[in-house]
Amino acid sequence: MLNNEAAANGLLQGKTALIYGAGGAIGGAVARAFAAEGAVVHLAGRTAARLEKVARDIHEAGGQAETAVVDALDEEQVGAFVDRVARKSKRIDISFNVISFGDIQQPLMEIDVDDFTQPITLATRTQFLTTRAAAARMTKQRSGVVLMFGGSGPQTLPGLGGFKVALDAMEGLRRQWALELGKHGVRVVTIVSGGIVETIPWQAEGREEIVAETTRAAHLNRTATLADVGNVACFLASDKAGAITDATVNISAGAIVDY
Question: How distant, in Å, are the alpha carbons of 163, 193, 223 from that of 209?
């Protein structure tokens, strides 16, 4: 439950946040965390029922949330969504895109070329569109934070198809956005988690093995949780992280080693 007094003095009090993929586990967790810290959250996604569920949770806890059905791959829909929020709120402070990539994971020698390129194209297109739309407002107000989720790093695993390549491409895009937007006071940061086991369906084949391997690889003998993602996202989106940009913040509990 939100504490209204805490929210009134929260890290994100008075901030306007856009969250794409807000009906999913990660997007929903971050939306709830943002609202708990005082932000007004605008939940975007393709499934109205899932967005409304997150919004109800936030409202019941005393937070502020609005929903909009938006295809984050559609330039016109993204632009219209951002324009609507900006007209109402007069500013855009945070943009966070965590839509799924639709990746098919197979060894490179076995995967179809369209299945390989799909997550790469999807990830770069949606991150480009949502960031550009928000940045058009943020640069004018000389402030704002764009958060990305996934991260990259030197390690990979066999059989991921285009998924890891998509993450690498997003990191390249983050560097470019951070460089070009920094002079306007806009920060761009990636959160890398090494995998959130709470998001793996209980019925998924090999789930126990995946959880065990992910946990084994982490130095802290635990994996990052949805709560961890929400807490870190709140800090990064706040003024307390005002010197952090063009960076990957690693919350993998040591599963991913920085070099």
Answer: 20, 18, 14
What is each CA distance from 239 to 37, 51, 66, 93, 130, in whole angstroms? 12, 27, 23, 11, 22
State the Cα–Cα distance between residues 204 and 215, nearest whole angstrom: 17
Coil, helix or strand at residue 88: helix
Which tokens sit at 37? 């810290």
The per-residue pLDDT for range 128-185, each reduced to its tens digit, is 999 999 999 999 999 999 999 987 767 777 778 778 888 889 999 999 999 999 999 9
Structure tokens at 206: 């090999």
CATH 3.40.50.720 for the 4-248 domain, yes or no: yes
Name the residue with tokens 């793996």.
200
CB 146 within 8 A of CB 100: no
Q: Using alpha carbons only, give the angle 32, 38, 182 rounded to the nearest 5 degrees.
A: 95
- Distance separating alpha carbons of residues 224 and 201, to the nearest angstrom: 16
- Sorted by sequence, the CB contacts under 8 Å of residue 164 that are 6+ apart come out as 152, 156, 157
Indicate yes or no: pTM above 0.85.
Answer: yes
Sign of torsion over alpha carbons 254, 160, 173, 94: negative
Q: What is the pLDDT of residues 121-131, one digit of tens each?
A: 999 999 999 99
How far, in whole angstroms, is CA 141 from its chain's centroid? 22
185 in helix, strand or coil?
A: coil
